[in-house]
Amino acid sequence: MHYTEAKGILSANNGMNVFRGCTHGCIYCDTRSACYNFTHEFEDVEVKSNAIDLLAAELSRKRKKCMIGTGAMCDPYIPLERELGVMRRAMELVLARGFGMCVQTKSADILRDLDLIKQINEKTKFVVQMTLTTADEELCKKIEPNVSSTRERVEALKVLRDNGIPTVVWLCPILPYINDTAENITAIVDYCAESGVKGIVNFGMGLTLRDGNRQYFYSKLDELFPGLKEKYISRYGNSYEVNSPIGNSLIKLFRALCNKYGIMHDNDRIFAYLHEFPQKRFEQIGFNF
Predict the structure, then answer these.
(1) Residue 188 has what pLDDT?
(2) CA atoms of 255 and 55, how far apart (whole Å)
(3) Residue 173 has what pLDDT?
(4) Looking at residue 264, what DSSP letter applies?
(5) What is the pLDDT of residue 279?
(6) Which residues have a Cβ under 8 Å from the Cβ of 121 and sit 6 or more positions away?
(7) Using CA atoms, how far apart are residues 191 and 153, in angstroms rounded to an integer?
(8) What is the DSSP letter of 59?
(9) For the segment 54-88, what is each residue's pLDDT rounded down to a tens digit?
(10) How far apart, in whole angstroms, are the C-alpha atoms of residue 139 and residue 179?
(11) Full-prediction pTM beyond 0.90?
(12) Which 3 state secondary structure label does DSSP give 1?
């Protein structure tokens, strides 16, 4: 871990990353790609020492309340958050200023801040986005070694459901010859139905590989799935989009299951929901800042 002083915290779409880098160890992570210009080791997490001050200043300048997002690039609930509590302070600020929040993670540690999540959701809106990749617990330990297990994430979704917190699941990535099976897709959508998720984001049955994360991914294939790297190279070469050979049938299955359970699965609709700030609810509560 090391500290840096950032120049800004919110993107044009009101998203933020309080950390830069990650220690979850997911073998497929796109954020390792060279295009993101990391100047330090990925696991040597960069902490923005002035993140909360920047957030306070940027929220105070906003003329309209909105949803504040976090976690799109680097998971905000890496183990380091247990010590630093940066996300908790960010949530306290969002609550005090009357904004909504939308957090993306694959860690059950988000439940550490359930009290604040509930308070924000009662006043405006809070959505938790949880990534689920495989229903196989042993496979999960291989491809996502330092993060909450799938079962722990599902149990977290159920706790959020029981506390009235809306949730969205990201079903990705789907790794060819690893987790691209009908059994896996069915099990994950079943988990989502059990947990009462509002929607499932899916960009297709595959993953993306580009310079930086491709090399890391292939090194992990050699370590964990001997011989599979050669199969990837033979089939995909240096392609950016790496789609499952049975992707079309898996997509059909995914959509059919979502329709069966009444789970939203149109990405545009889901993203519109995630960005929508509940203005009427906000006005009814009578915030006065």
Answers:
(1) 98
(2) 38
(3) 98
(4) B
(5) 77
(6) 164, 165, 166
(7) 10
(8) H
(9) 999 999 999 999 999 998 889 999 999 999 999 99
(10) 8
(11) yes
(12) coil
The one-letter amino acid code at 285 reads I
Q: Which among 239, 251, 160 has a CA at the least distance from the CA of 198? A: 160
CA distance 110 to 76: 9
Cβ density class 237-253: b for 16+ within 10 Å, e for less: eeeeebbbeeeeebbeb
| Token pair 């997490």: residue | 45
Residue 136 CA to its chain's centroid (Å): 19
Residue with tokens 């799938």: 150
Burial zone of 51 (CB within 10 Å; 0-12 exposed, 13-18 middle, 19+ buried): buried
Distance of CA 185 to the CA centre of its chain: 18
Q: Where are the alpha helices (DSSP H) in the chain?
A: 51-61, 80-84, 86-97, 114-123, 137-143, 150-162, 182-195, 213-224, 228-236, 247-261, 267-275, 279-285
C-alpha distance from residue 263 to each of 144, 152, 179, 259 (Å): 26, 21, 22, 6
Contact present, 10 and 48 (Cβ < 8 Å): no
DSSP conformation letters of 129-176: EEEE--S-HHHHHHHSTTS--HHHHHHHHHHHHHTT--EEEEE----T
Residues of the chain below pLDDT 50: 287-289
CB 101 within 8 A of CB 159: no
Q: Which residues, other chains included, contact 125 with Cβ-Cβ below 8 Å and sequence gap of 6+?
A: 67, 100, 101, 166, 276, 277, 278, 281
Q: What is the pLDDT of residue 287?
A: 47
Long-range contacts of 246-253 (CB under 8 A, 24+ apart): 246/180, 246/205, 247/174, 247/180, 247/204, 247/205, 247/206, 249/182, 250/174, 250/180, 250/182, 250/185, 250/205, 251/202, 251/204, 251/205, 253/182, 253/185, 253/186
pLDDT score for 288: 42
What pLDDT, on a 0 to 100 scale, did the predictor assign at position 72?
81
Q: Tell me which residue has tokens 């992990």.
A: 220
Give the count of alpha carbons within 13 A of 132, CB side only. Answer: 29
